[in-house]
């Protein structure tokens, strides 16, 4: 999924030549799980990628300001509760600094973010309920198979794209699960 974030960011903002991966080291899953895939995808697309760690809400604006100083920059929001908690500020800063950003949950795009791509959290909760049922009926958690997400959602916010001066390619629009106008 993380390699897809780079591809989609480059597709919606073709001038992207560098991308920061915004995350909080204290709350994000270890970045090595996603960074390798992001770097591989970025390299094949001619995008330079770098980690953009923030430890506090007050540090977020500095990342956006730094990206805005370099034309062709974008941001990838790593799956992180800190990022989700600060979504309104992050979406507002992306707009203020005109930095294209891709998000991992649909509520970002629905709240004004440019584009989101990730697994459907409601589907994950539904699958978790099935696991809980099986455990309550006596199955051992260690015996249950690992389930990977099956459903992914691509949401594009056209209003935000227009505000950023981006023209969304028709083939990208056609793949979207939801388009916000």
Provide an overview of this structure.
- This protein is α/β, with parallel strands linked by helices and 181 residues long.
- Strands 2-1-3-4-5-6-7 form a seven-stranded mixed β-sheet, with helices on both faces.
- Helix 1 runs parallel beside helix 2.
- The chain starts with a helix and ends with a strand.
- It is built from nine helices and seven strands.
- It has helices at 2-12, 32-44, 60-69, 81-85, 87-96, 106-110, 121-136, 158-163, 170-175, and strands spanning 18-23, 48-53, 73-77, 101-103, 115-119, 152-157, 178-180.
- The mean pLDDT is 92.
Give a concise summary:
The protein is of the alpha/beta class and 181 residues long.
Number of helices: 9
Average pLDDT for all residues: 92
One letter per element, helices H and strands E, the order comes to HEHEHEHHEHEHEHHE
Provide the helix percentage: 40-55%
> How much of the residues is beta strand, in percent?
15-25%
The secondary-structure class comes to alpha/beta
Strand order of the largest sheet: 2-1-3-4-5-6-7
What is the tally of beta strands? 7
Shape: globular
Kindly, what is the distance between the CA atoms of the first and last residues, rounded to a whole number of angstroms?
A: 25 Å
Give me the Rg, rounded.
17 Å
Largest sheet, described in full?
7 strands, mixed
Poorly predicted segments: none
